[in-house]
C-alpha cells in the first residue's frame, strides 16, 4: 500500500528520544480530532489505537472508505461525546497512516525500511505527548485505549503522570506474555518468509509481502476472537456449497472469513509497520521499566484509573487487568475495575456492547 | 525431505475406497511393531499417531535419530507393556514416512503431489484395518491414540466396531471446531504462500517450502502448549543476552524456541503431507458421518471406551471429551472418563505424566 496523505499532521520541533538509545529528528505525527477544544483546553481526550488501528477513530478510513473503527463509542451523543469533548487520535510512530514509520523517508531520501529504529510503546507515547505539546494541551481530561491502545494509556499514566486526569485501559495488559510474543513472532516470520519482503526493501519495487502479511493477519485474527464466538458465528458451516469438495478451497466459512481478513488487511497496512509495532508490543513490560515492580510505575499518581476486561478475551485475559489493578491498589491510586461478560473475545472492545458504553460514559463523566 | 525407507511395509491387495469417492490402488502402509504377537493373535494393540507423528512410537526416528515419540508409554515394562502386548503403529496414508501419500509415485510414475486425493480420518482407519487384515489380526486388544490418534481410535470404533475390544482416546475430539479449522487454515496458507511450494510440485526441484512449513509449524505449536506452560517455561526471559537488542533477532527465549521447532520440523516432514493431514482433521466430524447424531456412531458397540482429557488443553478441551462420553452413554457403551490436571496443554499426552500412565495401564489391563 502507498502511505495515505493524512488530513492533520505536525512535525515535532525537537528530536524524539527513543528507548533504544537513538533519537529521531523530524518526526511527523498524523492525527485526527473530533469535537471542539474548550477555551481552557481542559476537555481533550486522547484515544490511542490498537496494533492495526489508526487515527480514523470516528471518521471514514481514507483507504478503505469504511467507517471509523470506534464510531459506536466516539461521536456526538456517544459515550465519548464529541459535543462535550475534544477527541484526539494520533497514528502511532512506526505506523503507516501518516506518522513517521518504516515507510517514511530517512534523511538520505530513501525509505527507512528496516533501518528504522525499533521503537517501544513508551516511544509511541512520547510522540503523542509531543503532539499534545504542539497542540498546547497541558493536561488531558482522559487517555483512553483498548488493547495496544490500553498499553499506551498505562504507559502515559506511568511516564507522564501529570498529563492525564483519567486513564481508561480496556482489554489490555501491562506486559506481553510468552504466548503473546509467540503469536507475534509467527506473524513476523510469516512476513519475513515472503520473498517479496526483500529484507524490508520492497518500497517502490512493485512487489510487497502481501502473502506473508496476510498469513500474519490470519494467525493474529484468531487470537482476537473466542473459541465460542467462532463456533457461534461459523461452526462447521460450509461456504456457499452443500457438501465438502475434498479439495483445498475454502470449504468452511471460517476459512473464507480468515482469507478475507488476511487479504483485506494487506490493502491498508504496511508489512514493515506490522513488524515494528508487534515488536514494540512484545517489548512492553511496564514493571520492567520501573525497577521490576509494577506498583512503582504508578507511584504517586493522582489520576483516576478504570480497567475493563472481557471474560472471553484469551489474548489479554482478565488476570492481566487484575494484575494492573493490584499494582494500582498497592500504589494507592484511585482505580475501578470491571470484567464484562461478552462472547466475542478480545475484539469485544470494538463491538456493540451496551455495558461497555455505560462504563466508558460513566468513567469519562 | 526425502521419503524415508521404512523397515516394515505392506502393499494392500485391494484398492482402498475413499470418502471422497475415489479408490486408491496399490496403497502401501508402513508400520512398526513392538513385542511378540501371541499365538492366538489376541494381544495386538494398535497405536495411532498424531498429525506430525509417525510409526516410530518406541524406536529411533530414522531421519532425526531421536527416540520414539511415545517411548515413555510403550515398551518393556511400560504402561503399554511390550512384554505382554504386540504393539502396531502405522504411518497414516497421506503421511510421509513410507505410507502412500502426496510424495508417493502416482500410476504415471510422477509424484502425486496435489493430485493425491483428499483423504479423511476414516480413510486413514480403512488403511489401518486393511493392514490388520494383512497381518491376520481379527480383533485388537485395544486401539489407542492421542490427538489425531484419538480421532482414529474413535473412528475405528465407530466404523469397524468388531475390530477392537478397547478404545482409548486421549486429548481428542469427535469433530474439529471452527477455531481448530482456523489454525489449520493459517498453516496451509503459510505453506501455499511460499513460492517454493510451486503448487505442490516441488519434488525433485531442489526447492521445497521450508519457510512456509516452518511458519505453519510455529503457529500450530503454540496451540499444543498452554499459556501458563509457556509462561512457566519461558516467561519473558531473554535468549543468551542480558538486554533487548532493539532488533528483530530472537531476543526472547520463546521466539528462539519456536524458530527451532519450525525449522527442525521441515527436516522430517513433507509440506504436502501437512496440507493433506490437516485437511483430514478439519473434515473430521464423527456425528456427521452417522446421521448427525454422535451416539449413532457408537450404537451397539461392545467395546470398552476410555476418554482422557487435560485441563490445560485448549486445542481439544475437556468439553470435547465430555461430548464423546455423553454420546457413548447415550449409546449404552461402557465408558470411563478422566480429566487429568497437567500444566502443559495439549502436548501433555506426550510428556511425563504418572497419572496418565496409571490410567493407560489400568485400562489396557
UniProtKB/TrEMBL annotation, chains A, B:
Subcellular location: Cytoplasm
Any GO CC annotation of this UniProt entry: cytoplasm
Catalytic site positions: 147, 313, 346
Main localization (coarse): cytoplasm
Signal peptide: none
Coiled coil: none
Source taxonomy: Bacteria, Pseudomonadati, Pseudomonadota, Alphaproteobacteria, Sphingomonadales
Residue stretches making up the AB hydrolase-1 domain: 43-349
Function: Transfers an acetyl group from acetyl-CoA to L-homoserine, forming acetyl-L-homoserine.
Domain of life: Bacteria
Record family assignment: Belongs to the AB hydrolase superfamily. MetX family.
Catalysed reactions, as listed in the record: L-homoserine + acetyl-CoA = O-acetyl-L-homoserine + CoA
Keywords: Acyltransferase, Amino-acid biosynthesis, Cytoplasm, Methionine biosynthesis, Transferase
GO-annotated biological processes: homoserine metabolic process; methionine biosynthetic process
Binding-site positions, substrate: 217, 347
Quaternary organization: Homodimer.
EC number: 2.3.1.31
GO molecular function, a single term: homoserine O-acetyltransferase activity
Pathway(s): Amino-acid biosynthesis; L-methionine biosynthesis via de novo pathway; O-acetyl-L-homoserine from L-homoserine: step 1/1
Name by which UniProt lists this protein: Homoserine O-acetyltransferase
Amino acid at each position: 500500500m502507498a502511505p495515505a496523505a493524512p488530513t492533520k499532521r505536525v512535525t515535532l520541533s525537537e528530536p524524539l528520544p527513543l528507548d533504544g538509545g537513538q533519537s529521531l529528528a523530524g518526526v511527523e505525527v498524523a492525527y485526527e480530532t473530533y469535537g471542539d477544544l474548550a477555551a481552557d483546553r481542559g476537555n481533550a481526550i486522547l484515544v490511542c489505537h490498537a496494533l492495526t488501528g489508526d487515527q480514523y477513530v470516528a471518521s471514514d478510513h481514507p483507504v478503505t472508505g469504511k467507517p471509523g473503527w470506534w464510531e459506536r463509542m466516539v461521536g456526538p451523543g456517544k459515550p465519548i461525546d464529541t459535543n462535550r469533548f475534544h477527541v484526539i487520535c494520533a497514528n502511532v510512530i512506526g505506523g503507516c497512516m501518516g506518522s513517521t514509520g518504516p515507510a517514511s523517508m530517512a534523511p538520505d531520501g530513501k525509505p527507512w525500511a528496516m533501518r528504522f529504529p525499533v521503537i517501544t510503546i513508551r516511544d509511541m507515547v512520547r510522540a503523542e505527548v509531543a503532539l499534545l505539546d504542539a497542540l498546547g494541551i497541558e493536561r488531558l481530561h482522559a487517555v483512553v485505549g483498548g488493547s495496544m491502545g490500553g498499553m499506551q494509556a498505562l504507559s502515559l499514566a506511568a511516564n507522564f503522570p501529570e498529563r492525564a486526569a483519567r486513564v481508561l485501559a480496556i482489554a489490555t495488559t501491562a506486559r506481553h506474555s510468552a504466548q503473546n510474543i509467540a503469536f507475534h513472532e509467527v506473524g513476523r516470520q510469516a512476513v519475513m518468509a515472503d520473498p517479496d519482503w526483500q529484507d524490508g526493501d520492497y518500497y517502490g519495487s512493485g512487489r510487497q509481502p502481501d502473502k506473508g502479511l496476510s498469513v500474519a493477519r490470519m494467525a493474529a485474527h484468531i487470537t482476537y476472537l473466542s473459541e465460542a464466538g467462532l463456533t457461534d458465528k461459523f461452526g462447521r458451516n460450509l461456504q456457499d456449497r452443500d457438501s465438502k469438495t475434498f479439495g483445498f478451497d475454502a470449504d468452511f466459512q471460517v476459512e473464507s472469513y480468515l482469507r478475507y481478513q488476511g487479504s483485506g488487511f494487506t490493502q491498508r497496512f504496511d508489512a514493515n509497520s506490522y513488524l515494528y509495532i508487534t515488536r514494540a508490543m512484545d517489548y512492553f513490560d511496564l514493571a520492567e521499566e520501573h525497577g521490576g515492580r509494577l506498583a512503582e510505575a504508578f507511584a504517586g499518581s493522582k489520576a483516576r484509573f478504570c480497567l475493563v476486561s472481557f471474560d472471553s478475551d484469551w489474548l489479554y485475559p482478565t488476570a492481566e487487568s487484575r494484575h494492573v489493578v493490584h499494582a494500582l491498589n498497592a500504589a494507592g491510586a484511585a482505580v475501578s475495575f470491571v470484567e464484562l461478560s461478552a462472547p466475542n473475545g478480545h475484539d469485544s472492545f470494538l463491538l456493540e456492547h451496551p455495558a461497555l458504553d455505560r462504563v466508558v460514559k460513566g468513567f469519562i463523566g
